[in-house]
Design goal:
The protein is an alpha/beta fold and 267 residues long. It is 31% helix and 18% strand. The chain has 9 helices and 11 strands. The strands form 2 sheets. Strands 2-1-3-5-6-4 form a 6-stranded mixed β-sheet. The protein has a 5-stranded parallel β-sheet with strand order 8-7-9-10-11, with helices on both faces. Strand 5 and strand 6 form a beta hairpin. The chain is globular. The two termini are 37 Å apart.
Amino acid sequence: MEKLYGLLGRRLGHSWSVPIHQALGCGDYRLVELEPEALEGFLRREDVGGLNVTIPYKRDVMKFCDAIDPAARSIGSVNTLVRREGKLWGYNTDIDGFLYMLRRAGISLAGKKTVILGSGGASLTAQAAARREGAREIVVISRSGPDSYETLPDRHGDAEALINTTPLGMWPHMDEAAADLRLLPAVTEVVDVIYNPGRTNLLLQAEELNRRNPGPGGEPGEPVTRSIRYTGGLSMLAAQAKRAEELFFQKRIPDGEADRITARLWR
């Protein structure tokens, strides 16, 4: 039986997963857009070989898994499905990609108060990564409750690291921004898991705050008082895809492939 490999989600027009997985050797990789009511029937198909899972199904697919990797269960989110011997296995390769992204950008969360925007599946991965990296405090910001976007500057203006796991700023709504860094003066590390566009408004603001302030006549002014390290989600996407391919086909792929694909996509 010909096996099906692809990305499962609800709206996938923004996705770059097909060229990434094709570059890793999975030539038949495809996009699978489904409405929630079609999810169970699709996952029962015997021809499913391997799937990546994205918004909004990273938690929904867990109840259809016959087995879940302990790391994925502890995170509470599954982004990779593999059918082996008739059973559907759930994994989380986002954590591998997230940690790779941090290392590649030289970003450290160790000992820092870390604010995570969003409370969905990607947020669960970011929380797990922040714990693993030794963040001093982890705060999750959602639309309501005491820790909301409205209360963020007042309650957590001392945040040192900011991670966006929401779609705010994603193509085609690129005029949006997840937060205003001018209201968070202690932030020195910014992570945006969005990869399309390569630089969101949040990252463009981080870049701007790193520049020297111009003087009154346009001459260089005083240096900005803080240096912000920042990254988008492209390298995370490539690294988690590499790990997913290893699980799909039970083979080892050199780590350098993630670097090669990230550079190729950025160009």
